[in-house]
Write a structure and sequence with these properties.
Radius of gyration of chain A: 25 Å
Strand order of the largest sheet of chain B: 5-6-7-3-8-9
Largest sheet of chain B: 6 strands, mixed
Strand content of chain B: 25-35%
Largest interface: A-B, 51 and 64 residues
Shape of chain A: elongated
Radius of gyration of chain B: 20 Å
Mean pLDDT of chain B: 79
Distance between the termini of chain A: 33 Å
Oligomer: heterodimer
Structural class of chain B: alpha/beta
Helix content of chain A: 55-70%
Low-confidence stretches of chain B: 1-6
Low-confidence stretches of chain A: 1-16
Chain lengths: ~300, ~260
């Protein structure tokens, strides 16, 4: 069969072309061809991403409704899941462990539920973010779109999930005597900042999870540790009373604690500004911008490597 | 290439000495046990546990606008890998692929979202390919009709996990074919459809070529290659064994495989 092997295949296919003798790179340059799978520049990447905004939104909504499509109660779980979560934490930390020290029941229950919902928002953004690429390889390998669409879309899905939880939260907060006031308007900037922060984290873990899928196994433990350190079910101020000022401050600048405290401050009448660390808005803004921009650039740097077989 | 004036040949895909190497983790030790994995980590033997598979070895070719190029070769000869590299989904070890615009790869394994309905998949697939909402709305009915999913009842509103593999492949092809691609690559997607659908999709491939695109087709069905392609690349063990007009190459290939 040796006569059928053609090693000089370039010459074969280019023989009839007037471009004979040009190297592949010269030929590509002449006809404006670009290297396949090359990473676009950051500005161009942002523009591509903006072009896909309808996809990002539609994908997040589709995932949200598909989440409970196999359950008999269907979309009711959107509200029931956070409610059950809050119930479990109340039973363990409120009833059994009395973690409410320093707070009346009227403050503690909304305090706890707000904390659980706000932390769950970040937690689930990270958990879905880890699998944003590695869990959607079929889609990544089938179609071309800026890969950042996926983690952003999953973060957006969690934001929509949180809006369902907020309905439950409002009812609980009002039920314990904190009525809507001007401070409730703060919810919007808080959610915007936290969403930015979550998206940045989702982008970071999406890149790490794409390379090391094992991270999805490890993540629940990291997140649980973070949760217990963040004061979801206890007030950092009260729990650490007597420790050094610097230590308490260090615990309080934790972004999860910042977002929870801001939300509690906005919603709960009995949770005053004295519970917030100084410069709380500045710290929140800092975390959001730094994590979002950093996460975006970090994700973009590996754009051409996602979906590798 | 008889219908093309050589002076008008515009290259759309150029592969230049392309090499692709897969790195398979944990394949070398033979033992998949936890202790073996642990000892690999402890010894920090990244290279020890990694086995390299040289899937494509120095392939070069130029494909032109309006061509339909068939890829043939026995299983594991590197056809799908080559397509993935052209699509930019697999980074090259050395060498380069230049393409005009963004090539789209359409494969049998390219699962869309199985937990969503066919309807949602059509909309999301269209949006992901960069179509606007209006374009997706306009073409929605065409896509569904083309796929023939609704011929036997209202299946488009069911989740994709309930589809048969043939139905899913048909829908995927219909979504990808709805857009005019500069370079479209089809990886054995036609094999799963029934005869009626195969005829429809061959027609669509011809249309796509007319709208100034290049189509690559991987198939083990020599007849569907004959019907759609005018040029064939024959890959064997990752090397380009032959490149030429369909009839010539397929004749040699059939001699080689002993048909």
């Amino acid at each position: 069969m040796s006569e059928t092997t053609h090693d000089g295949t370039v010459a074969l296919s280019a023989a009839v072309s007037p471009d004979e003798g040009m190297t592949a790179a010269q030929l590509a340059a002449k006809y404006g061809l670009t290297v396949s799978g090359a990473r676009p520049a950051l500005v161009e990447y942002v523009r591509q991403l903006w072009d896909r905004r309808h996809f990002i939104l539609a994908f997040s909504q589709a995932k949200l409704t598909a989440q409970y499509s196999q359950a008999k109660l269907g979309q009711l779980w959107q509200v029931a899941t956070p409610l059950l979560n809050a119930g479990v934490y109340y039973f363990i930390f409120g009833v059994i462990l009395h973690a409410s020290r320093g707070m009346s029941q009227d403050v503690y229950i909304p305090f706890l539920v707000t904390g659980v919902f706000v932390f769950t928002f970040t937690q689930s953004s990270i958990m879905t973010g880890v699998r944003a690429i590695s869990g959607n390889l079929g889609l990544v390998r089938a179609l071309h779109f800026p890969r950042a669409s996926l983690p952003i879309s999953f973060a957006l899905q969690q934001l929509q999930q949180l809006l369902f939880s907020m309905i439950v939260l409002f009812i609980i907060v009002i039920g314990f005597g904190s009525y809507p006031g001007m401070s409730w308007l703060l919810i919007l900037p808080i959610l915007a900042l936290q969403f930015l922060f979550n998206t940045g984290l989702a982008l970071i873990v999406a890149r790490m999870g794409a390379k090391t899928p094992d991270l999805a196994q490890l993540m629940p433990f990291i997140l649980r540790t973070w949760m217990y350190m963040s004061g979801v079910m206890f007030s950092i101020n009260h729990m650490l009373a007597g420790r050094s000022e610097a230590f308490i401050r260090a615990m309080q600048v934790n972004p999860a604690a910042i977002f929870m405290d801001l939300m509690r401050y906005a919603l709960i009448d009995g949770y005053g500004a004295s519970n917030l660390p100084p410069h709380v808005w500045g710290i929140a803004l800092f975390w959001s911008v730094v994590v979002f921009v950093g996460g975006f650039v970090y994700f973009w740097k590996a754009e051409e490597r996602y979906g590798r077989g | 290439m008889a219908d093309l004036n050589p002076g008008e040949q515009i290259p759309t895909v150029i592969a230049d000495e392309l090499h692709i190497v897969y790195r398979v983790h944990g394949a070398k030790t033979g033992k998949g046990s936890a202790t073996a994995a642990l000892s690999r980590i402890v010894k920090r033997g990244e290279e020890r546990g990694v086995r390299k598979v040289h899937a494509v070895k120095g392939v070069s070719f130029v494909a032109y606008r309006g061509e339909a190029v068939g890829l043939i070769g026995s299983n594991g000869s590197g056809k799908s890998t080559l397509l993935r590299a052209i699509a930019g989904l697999l980074p090259a070890e050395s060498g380069k692929v230049y393409t005009n615009g963004q090539p789209s790869l359409l494969g049998v394994n390219a699962a869309l979202m199985n937990d969503l309905t066919g309807e949602r998949n059509v909309i999301l697939g269209g949006l992901a390919m960069g179509m606007s909402r209006e374009q997706v709305r306009e073409r929605y009915q065409d896509i569904v009709d083309f796929s023939g999913i609704n011929e036997k009842g209202d299946f488009i509103t069911l989740p994709m996990r309930t589809y048969s593999s043939g139905m899913a492949a048909r829908l995927r092809f219909s979504i990808a074919a709805a857009k005019d691609h500069d370079v479209l690559m089809i990886d054995e997607a036609l094999a799963t459809g029934d005869r009626k659908f195969q005829v429809r999709s061959e027609e669509r491939i011809r249309e796509l070529r007319k709208s100034a695109g290049t189509v690559f087709l991987v198939s083990h069905n020599n007849k569907s290659i004959r019907d759609t392609c005018d040029r064939v690349l024959w890959l064997e063990r990752g090397e380009l064994r032959m490149d030429g007009p369909t009839d010539e190459v397929i004749k040699e290939y059939e001699k080689f495989t002993g048909k």
